[in-house]
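Anyone up for a design puzzle?
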């Protein structure tokens, strides 16, 4: 069932990538889970996030993947909220220091989740490391909801099986320093989609087909999470 869904998704997303309403009608709310998926495209505006070895900006790539994830969720009939749909900060003041602006931005993201009923939070990021050999998507979970680890486990497994890239990473609890994961009370995961410090993986992250695969794996994992299948 999951594989079939993933296949259908792949076809639909390729053909109706930006036509959200059409996609939404395709399954007619087949997976109405009662949850609202919040899709958080990491960074944005003055905060570019990581910069890849050949210049890929994390904030740009996370937005592209997030939009594809939104399309995939819409196709499945799952309600979503996009934290941002363009290159912007959620809260920014010229008078603030970079650090203060960063905290204000994260607080604004948290507020959206706090004001949403039954949220499930997906924060989309890219990884970076000083040594270039490290690669592979990895999922981190917030400690405040007991459902988060299960969501992270399923998402990690779905990413590994769909990307089929020999990734052996395991899902982990988010470090204490990750503000959103530690503040959110709902099921919440951060997905580090890959390392921009690895030239091959950075090239994949720039590739539209690969971006779609990432989105489909995350959406497929969510279906598994809500259906238990
Ligand atoms: Zn990031």
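Challenge accepted. My sequence:
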């Amino acid at each position: 069932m999951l594989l079939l869904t993933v296949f259908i998704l792949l076809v639909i997303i390729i053909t109706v990538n930006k036509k959200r309403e059409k996609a939404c009608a395709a399954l007619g709310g087949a997976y109405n889970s009662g949850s609202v998926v919040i899709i958080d495209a990491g960074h944005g505006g003055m905060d570019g996030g990581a910069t890849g070895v050949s210049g890929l900006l994390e904030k740009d790539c996370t937005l592209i993947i997030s939009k594809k994830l939104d399309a995939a969720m819409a196709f499945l009939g799952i309600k979503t909220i996009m934290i941002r749909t363009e290159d912007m900060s959620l809260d920014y003041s010229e008078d603030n220091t970079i650090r203060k602006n960063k905290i204000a931005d994260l607080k604004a993201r948290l507020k959206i989740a706090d004001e949403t009923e039954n949220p499930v939070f997906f924060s989309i990021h890219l990884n970076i490391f000083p040594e270039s050999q490290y690669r592979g998507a990895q999922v981190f979970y917030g400690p405040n909801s007991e459902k988060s680890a299960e969501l992270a486990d399923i998402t990690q497994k779905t990413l590994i099986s769909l990307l089929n890239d020999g990734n052996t990473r395991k899902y982990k609890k988010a470090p204490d320093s990750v503000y959103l994961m530690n503040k959110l009370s709902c099921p919440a995961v951060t997905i580090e989609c890959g390392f921009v410090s690895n030239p091959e993986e950075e090239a994949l992250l720039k590739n539209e087909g690969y971006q779609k695969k990432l989105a489909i794996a995350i959406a497929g994992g969510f279906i598994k999470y809500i259906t238990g299948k």
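A detail worth pointing out: Residues 42-43, 49, 58, 125 surround zinc ion (CB under 6 Å).
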